[in-house]
Amino acid sequence: MTYTPSEEPPPFPLTAVDLATLAQTDEEFIPHTWEELKDILAANDLAAFRRKPSQLARYIKWTVAIKAEYGSTLEYLRQKRLRWAPPTDSKVTPSASSLSMATFRNPVPFADPSDYKILVNDWPYGTTPDITHLVVWLKTPFRVYPTDGSLTPESRCEIESFVRKTFVRRLEHLGEADDRVLWFKNTTDLQSVRALEHFHLFVRGVDPGILMEWTGEA
């Protein structure tokens, strides 16, 4: 599948990397390796992440169709993937620059397992086959800087602690567990779903059984 911006307006802003990717064929595309992912994150160059050309084209067209059917990708995610109820006014409170878009039980991120869900990314970045792209969705918003949505040190520590406890420790039997998990949170300008809190992970060399433990999905 291919897509060109002249066909119809894109459902979200396309970056220069997106446009360059759409100009490629899948055969020309070079997937991200683990070392490249680490380099991108070390440089905080999140805009460098790219999807396979056909995958990006499908994602764009899927987003158009989902918005037409559900009104937004948020509503689709909440109803079909996360199966979370819409928020009630009594428990929706603002953080530094965002609102929770689902009713949470505990305002502290990760404090209640029902307030977050781990899913394999339906539209992953283009990586080598040994890498899986996960997303952790939360009902509870993180504290972020209002200028660009980047995490405060407090929020970064909360995520680091959760990632180590949930992912790194689970992979210790494989060896080099610290080098099997990477995480990042997109700044506001790079988020295609902005109204529901989430961050991304890459895990390396993880078998389907462990992925199912985390996600509850086969």
Q: What do you see in this structure?
A:
- By secondary structure, the protein is an alpha+beta fold.
- Helix content is 31%, strand content 11%.
- Strands 1-2-4-3 form a four-stranded antiparallel β-sheet, sandwiched between helices.
- The model is unreliable at 90-99 (pLDDT under 50).
> Residue share in helices?
25-40%
What structural class do the secondary elements suggest?
A: alpha+beta
Q: Multimeric state of these chains?
A: single chain
Outline the low-pLDDT stretches: 90-99
**Helical run tally:** 6
Largest sheet: 4 strands, antiparallel
Q: Give the strand order, joined by hyphens, for the main sheet.
A: 1-2-4-3
Note the overall shape. globular
- List how many beta strands DSSP finds: 4
Average pLDDT number: 89
Measured by DSSP, the beta-strand proportion falls in: 5-15%
Compressed to H and E, one letter per element, the order equals HHHHEEHEEH
Radius of gyration: 17 Å
Q: How many angstroms does the end-to-end distance come to? A: 26 Å
Summarize the structure.
With 218 residues, this protein is an alpha+beta fold. The chain has helices spanning 16-22, 34-42, 53-70, 73-81, 153-168, 208-215; strands spanning 116-120, 131-138, 181-184, 197-204.
